[in-house]
Amino acid sequence: MIEAKNITKIVKSGGADLKILNDVNLTVGDGEFTAIIGRSGAGKSTLLYVLSLLDANFEGEVFVAGNKISQLPDQERVEYRLQNLGFIFQEYALLPELTATENVALPFLMRGLGKKQAFQNAKEALAQVGLEKKTENLPATLSGGEQQRVAIARAIAGKPKILFADEPTANLDSVRACEIMAIFLRLNRGGQTIILITHEDELAQMTHRIVEMNDGKIISDKQIENPRVNLCAKHKIS
Amino acid sequence: MDLNNLRIGLLLGFWQLKRANAWTTFLIVFVMTLTFLNLVVVSGILIGLVQGSSDSYQRQYSGDILVDKNPFTKYISKGNDILSAAKDSKEIEAASARYLEGAVVQSDFTKNIKANEVTPQAAATIAGIEPVDEDRVTGLSKLVVAGKYFDRSEFNSAVIGSGLLAEYNPNAILGETLKNVVPGSKVRISVNGGYIDLKIKGIVKSKVGDVNRRIYIDRDYFTQLYGRSINNPNEIAIKISPGVRPESVKLLLQAAAQENALVQTARESQGSFLKDIEATFSLLGGVIGGIAIMVSSITIFIVIFINALTRKKYIGILKAIGIKNSVIAASYLAQALFYSVAGISVGLMLLYGSIKPYFDANPINFPFSDGILAVTATGVAWRVIILVGATVAAGILPILFIVRKNTLNLILGRE
Looking at the predicted structure, is the pLDDT value of residue B183 above 90? Predict the structure, then answer.
């Protein structure tokens, strides 16, 4: 479970203070698939950065499994992310001179695995996202959807407690977006906690819960009784 | 940094290098090669100028040990004791005693001169030598550039240094050189208020002034002309056997000479002039080498810094996925190390494969020496260490600066 308490983030803008997050409180339980939606500038990505420890400059507290993690120093946050959190960026964020396998193997290596074992695990993770035939490709030779799948493989490789995804389908067409969502749904069925940022209502409807933000505040928080997981059926993706 | 982090950093650096632009890598390695050669060759040539002069001095004049008269005496006393000790020692290969007197030498003295002309003349040192012994120590016969070397007990014949001849010194002023002296011609030398005529048998040429401005005649002829005792040479040049330390031979000869002569190694006998030049050139080489190191450090700093700047986003991503700062720094350290080691390796191959052999075969023709490329294994090793150290420092600094920035700011390009 991840819990954010009284999160406020203020930045300077044109000499004036601007509240990007305004006393936000949010709890996401284990195994939940939560979508955070809202207009551009609503503060959803900022909240995700705070929850995932990428941003340390805020007021309030973040707890994971009851442990306060918001005050960890920089290198301990890096280690905590490695061991407990997975993050998927909108623009894939792969290292361009590393092959798909090498990109995914890096976190395994950091966890102390030998090169051979790390590469084997990376290939298994790539197979989970349907890229078993493109393990030696450099990112530049992969399509956007494929690159995002490599990024997902890298994020889930260490079996993180929570998977954060910041508009992972924003740069993809509807078919590729559905492919990505299908992977998330499959992971969630396996118990993976996922927090997804999206501005696409249709994709948000596929999750368990939709949190809507505006002007740095949560303005609604709805549980979805029956997630519309078949929305991608028209693309014959399951 | 633990070993695992270092291992991953090196692996990451290797992956990045493997897929980096080949031309960029080539260019950086090329710059490193030039820097290394600049560091070694420029100072090597500067020191080689003096080294060449010093080597020539030892090879063609002093031998490995030079026994000289004491500063306030005219000759060496009991020279035969020293020569006997030299002949009895297995550590000494050859010894040559030299007997010296100053003289005025004239050429063209039989020619009728006009009223406004003077007979060409020059001040010279007449050296009485035993030609075979001298040749064994200094290889004087190999310096003959015209005519022939003279034989033992060949009276009235002389070998003259080219430094006394106008034909070999076109810029010399009147009164310093002789004219029209060729093998077979005669020169007139002043002896004890009178003069004698000597037939020139050969001309020797050397860049060592003490060799090049002497007239060599047979020792027995010399002692007869000047009334000198064979027991009173002015100097004795000693050639030691291969592998023998000059210092040990010096001690042996000092024991034989006692207070009657000054025994010095070749280096000691060179005086402060060459040593001062060597120190100055060494300093110059050091300054130029220091500039070369600074240039290479700045080059690597700029290369790594620009590389890191353009890859700030990826550095942020690495941090975001849990890669520690030390691993990221190690990956750039690996790249800096590769550039320096590759550049130095190519430089070493060029140095020992072509540059050094070329200079050995074709010394630079300087007026006072044959300039060689003075490089020693120790000197090269130190330069390698300095260059690698400077490159690594220059490579690691920018990445340490960037990697400490806020992860999110790096990813979003806010800084």
Answer: yes
* Whether residue B367 sits in one domain with residue B320: yes
| A49, A82, A115 member nearest B322 (Cβ) | A82
**Contacting residues of B for A102, CB less than 8 Å apart:** 15
In this predicted model, what pLDDT tens digit does every residue of B304-353 receive, in sequence order? 778 778 888 889 999 888 898 899 999 988 988 998 899 999 999 999 99
R_g of chain B computed on alpha carbons? 32
Give me the domain span that covers residue B380: 3-57+274-412
Please tell me the predicted confidence (pLDDT) of residue B235. Answer: 95
Say whether B352 sits in a helix, a strand or coil: helix
Last residue of a domain, one of B260, B289, B312: B260
The CATH number of the domain where A29 resides is what? 3.40.50.300
Residue B99 falls inside a structural domain:
yes
Task: Tell me if chain B has a CB within 8 Å of the CB of A102.
Answer: yes
Chosen from A9, A87, A97, A141 to mutate, greatest number of chain B CBs within 10 A: A97
Question: How many Å apart are CA B215 and CA B25, to the nearest integer?
Answer: 61
Q: What is the ipTM of this complex?
A: 0.86
B8:A98 CB<8 A: no
Strands (E), B107-234: 121-129, 144-147, 157-161, 186-191, 194-204, 214-218
Its domain, for residue A150, covers 2-235
A18 touches chain B (CB under 8 A): no
